[in-house]
Design brief:
This protein is mainly α. It has 3 helices and no strands.
Length: about 70
């Protein structure tokens, strides 16, 4: 049976010395923060770009019944 990525990582971590596990944990936390920050930045940039359309009279009229 083929292992999925998470299972393979767990298998490798179980065989790794503690100092490497700490480095892997630091790197994983860094990647998660980076990904989260990038998503926030994209959201903020999209909002300012789309606000021209959102704030139009046509949009107000289209959404007034909701």
């Amino acid at each position: 049976m083929m292992m999925n990525s998470k299972d393979l990582i767990i298998h490798e971590l179980q065989q790794a010395p503690d100092f490497l596990v700490e480095e892997v944990l630091d790197f994983l936390q860094f990647l998660k923060r980076k990904h989260s920050t990038e998503r926030i930045e994209i959201t903020v940039l999209s909002e300012s770009s789309l606000s021209k359309d959102w704030l139009s009279q046509e949009e107000e009229e289209a959404w007034q019944d909701l």
